[in-house]
Write a structure and sequence with these properties.
This protein has 161 residues and is mainly alpha-helical. Helix content is 75%, strand content 0%. It is built from six helices and no strands. It has helices spanning 3-24, 30-48, 60-67, 72-77, 79-91, 97-148. The longest helix is centred in the C-terminal third of the chain and has 52 residues, at 97-148. The relative contact order is 0.09.
Length: 161
């Protein structure tokens, strides 16, 4: 079994065990059990790379957002779960799926940007060439008009009658 599937399973198993332990010993009230479930479910989603409520980073801040709890619940109350989360993060040998997808999207967009920049440079070169051609044609047109009608007087066709 790969680390990608192992870490979420470990988080789920430990979360179930902690919630059951708190229920049996009456150590934790219903709120504690709900928080443990929320945290372990959030761990599973983050470690599997499918966040629902956070940016998907493997940090306590993202874990708290994913569990929809305040961060101090992890840093002061459920410190064991926070430590477990960090241990599971360290055990993974690759980034989560969301990070991989973001990297692929970023690479694709960088290639697109490079292509568009080259296309823009080529368009600017063509535009400069066309501007020079138009300028030359305007000069030639002016010279032809001067040769045809010295003094630059243009006689409209209507008045020739």
């Amino acid at each position: 079994m790969s680390d990608t599937t192992t870490a979420p399973l470990i988080a789920e198993t430990i979360g179930i065990a902690l919630a059951a332990s708190a229920a049996v010993t009456n150590r934790g009230d219903t709120e504690d059990r709900a928080e443990i479930h929320a945290i372990t479910d959030a761990m599973i989603r983050l470690l599997a790379g499918i966040p629902l409520h956070s940016d998907g980073q493997l940090t306590v801040k993202s874990l708290a957002e994913e569990a929809q709890l305040k961060r101090h619940k992890l840093t002061h109350k459920h410190t064991g779960l926070k430590d477990l989360f960090y241990a599971l993060v360290r055990s993974q040998d690759h980034p989560p799926q969301i990070a991989q997808r973001l990297k692929e999207d970023n690479d694709r967009l960088r290639e697109q940007l490079a292509s568009l920049r080259e296309e823009h440079r080529e368009t600017k070169r063509r535009l400069a060439t066309f501007a020079r051609m138009i300028h030359v044609l305007e000069i030639e047109n002016h010279q032809l008009r001067e040769l045809r009608h010295p003094g630059g007087v243009v006689i409209p066709l209507r008045n020739r009658e």
